[in-house]
């Protein structure tokens, strides 16, 4: 039985941009995504924290999920935050990854970015955004490791590592790293069944 | 992995019992509202009094630049207040009395921002912390976790006493008469939840300052502004306050008026209580736009207001809390973590001296300094907050305060540690210089998240800061010290009236299109506790504001005479000169030529004011009797649940408590000095409502009142399941009878037919104004 709680985060890291990308570039993109219902989720607003160094950057605020063009850890990436919803525990992890990869793939293709943004398929940062359900402990790691292993086997074509990161005060976090992975995001997504199902009321 | 525990179970006794109970009650109210068992206005005021506030688009409508789209939330049409949808994310305001935070509290706030918000802690202009995009159903756990570290959100919004603010340098400042911290703390917890502060028509703000000349306390624009004073009486130095009342910003800014040149310290709490009573009794209720204390003081005149307050003071029932805190005025004293020292003469990093010049202030205590942590737009991340908590633990001995400039202040830093402290702050991107200078621009949330925002004050502030930095004005000795503050609307949460250059969000119709603008307000005074307010010169298109501000400040930098203030400079060159700059900026290209002027900073959508909502800050004026009777009903419900949970004795106690609460709610309208002792409540209820037959039911006579008397005489003893059921049923009937009594007596009880009893003042209630009251925190 899966031990994956419901409040989760996944960050996929950007490779070095082909040209400097100001975080503000993402503001009109996210507004357009709301207008055109691009993600097939209830998206509500865009929050701009570009003025905060190594911060949440620019955020597409949704009802069930948020998407951060995020600079925490000092590295640009797309952070997907699942904050509510009633998915069964068994499908939470897969849904998390599919939504993250789908949104990241859309950003890679975003005309306004002109191909300057690409994400690395080698590395993902997984977090449990709930200190009650998933404290940063070895016990939590032991509980979720089978699910993360299973995910890694489906997602990556080669060997991968799971490494706990952060300290006792941080959110529980695990880095998934597959050094040999070179597949495009669309291919990774296909391994999990393709784009996520719409999540609209 | 153990997943069974709730936060309530996990935190256990670390949450103070009374606060735990309040949060349980709020959680029950959330459940009842979801089931439609609490009326939405009542729930709105209830949640506001817990600091849970609405946010932009919470009516489910959002303009996408072309049309207004409906946000289809899963909970459908359930509301958490008028035109406020249940699922819409909201803002949680967290009171930080006089801005004092411990490192553990900062850690906890970081966790909560991460788990329930968007990983940003926002410091407000009234020293609160706000979290945005919070779901109402997450708030009880959020509040529990705050309570476990000594923070309550009670009365952070709504028609209540808001966060009590104070000079963040209190206790270590060179110019203060004495440390106002214990006084600010005492009044915070004395007025919190006090019977006499529950029936206001609007919010009520209190501020303390240690001295008169510096700006830090901002006493001039508060409902009560207390400035520390000492006086020698019979050879002994006595403490007291120069007390001001009735100040305020908003659309009708008003300077506070002197209430007392020297109010002795022991009178601070009773006079505040008496003022609360006068405000609750005579303050406007129907027209929220006229309901702040400033309007009452203006209407009555300061002398009459003072007479009424003193009269009320004389009638107060003595309360030991008035002076208990005076026995130990050092209870909140901070202890430094490190010994005092001197700044090393060598080995200072590049940038250190610039940071020291703007961000470091010497303390009264030799060898110690205060260090301001510059927060861009008042924001810091969860990661930064945790790291800052560690820095504070290491260098300051847990002494952190938030400031009205939306920064944080570390106190008790040994001067010898300053280079290391700066390095530690820089490592977490919090070591920027420029606190309190022209680039440290204050801004309210504006259209980013506020329902009332007209223009984007935050995005403008960010852009303006960038452009001023790039222009070199930030390093100009004359221009550097100017204060710029931006508000997204006339409610003035950005405190623009008291800046050298204030900016007030407005909209204008240009070439047939809506264009975001800011009124340019010049010449306000930040010093002398925000001593005077600036005046509006004219509206500038948002995209032109940086140009106008740079031109104006560059001229000041070039033409300043000696130590001339900006206000004096404005007076010297004349407002007409500045008006000409504004008029020049007002000429815009047409929509087809350049559409950039027709959207706001940081928002590519074509500008509209259709996203504005109805302000909640004023809350709903729900008479305290109604609030309390609703509370009693909730207790009846809880008693029923306790029966189902096979907890009969707790059910009996809860039902008895409900009856007492209902009886007290009515009786306080006859005897405002009524205490909380059960015997006193029953006795006074009998005198005012039973002996007078006011509580008599038209058909059942004294029957329902007898339910209370009996359960009280029997000490709430019921043993058999039948007896418990009967008692809960009788309690329910009693509370219902209290409702009926209240409805029958109406206005004479401050009842449902007309707000509070018009006793002394009886002006005709003006027609209700549009609810565009502010979101001032």
Which properties best describe this structure?
heterodimer, A: 201 residues, alpha+beta, 8-stranded antiparallel beta sheet, 8 strands, globular, B: 777 residues, Sulfite Reductase Hemoprotein, domain 2, Sulfite Reductase Hemoprotein, domain 1, Alpha-Beta Plaits, 5-stranded antiparallel beta sheet, 26 strands, 36% helix, disordered C terminus
Topology of helices and strands:
The complex is a heterodimer of chains A (201) and B (777).
Chain A (H helix, E strand, L loop, with lengths): L7 E7 L11 H11 L6 E7 L7 E6 L2 E6 L6 E6 L6 H20 L10 E10 L9 H18 L5 E5 L6 E6 L7 H7 L10
Antiparallel strand pairs in A: 1-5, 1-6, 2-3, 3-4, 4-5, 6-8, 7-8
Chain B lengths: L6 H5 L5 H18 L5 H9 L3 E2 L7 E3 L4 E3 L8 E3 L2 E2 L4 E5 L5 E2 L1 H14 L3 E4 L5 E6 L4 H9 L17 E2 L14 H11 L14 E4 L14 E10 L2 E10 L11 E8 L3 H15 L10 H8 L1 H14 L5 H4 L27 H8 E3 L5 E6 L5 E3 H14 L4 E3 L5 E7 L3 H10 L14 E2 L13 H15 L12 E4 L13 E10 L2 E10 L4 H4 L4 E7 L3 H15 L6 H8 L1 H12 L12 E2 L2 E4 L17 H21 L3 H20 L10 H13 L12 H11 L7 H25 L32
Parallel strand pairs in B: 10-11, 11-12, 20-21, 21-22
Antiparallel strand pairs in B: 1-6, 2-3, 4-5, 6-9, 7-18, 8-9, 8-17, 12-13, 13-14, 15-16, 16-19, 18-19, 22-23, 23-24, 25-26
Helix pairs in contact in B: 2-3, 2-5, 2-19, 4-5, 4-12, 6-7, 7-9, 8-9, 14-16, 16-18, 19-20, 19-23, 20-21, 20-23, 21-22, 22-23
Q: Catalogue the unreliable spans of chain A.
A: none
Helical coverage of chain A, percent range: 25-40%
Proportion of strand residues of chain B: 15-25%
How large is the radius of gyration of chain A? 16 Å
Total domain count of chain B: 5
Mean pLDDT of chain B: 91
Question: Structural class given helices, strands, pairing of chain B?
Answer: alpha+beta
Number of helices of chain A: 4
C-alpha geometry of chain A: globular
CATH-level-2 architecture of the largest domain in chain B: 2-Layer Sandwich
**Beta-strand proportion of chain A:** 25-35%
What oligomeric assembly is this protein in? heterodimer
What is the CA-atom radius of gyration of chain B, in angstroms?
Answer: 27 Å
Largest sheet of chain A, in brief, is: 8 strands, antiparallel
Tally the beta strands of chain A.
Answer: 8
Which structural class do you get from the secondary structure elements of chain A? alpha+beta
Strand order of the largest sheet of chain A: 2-3-4-5-1-6-8-7
Helicity of chain B, as a percent range: 25-40%
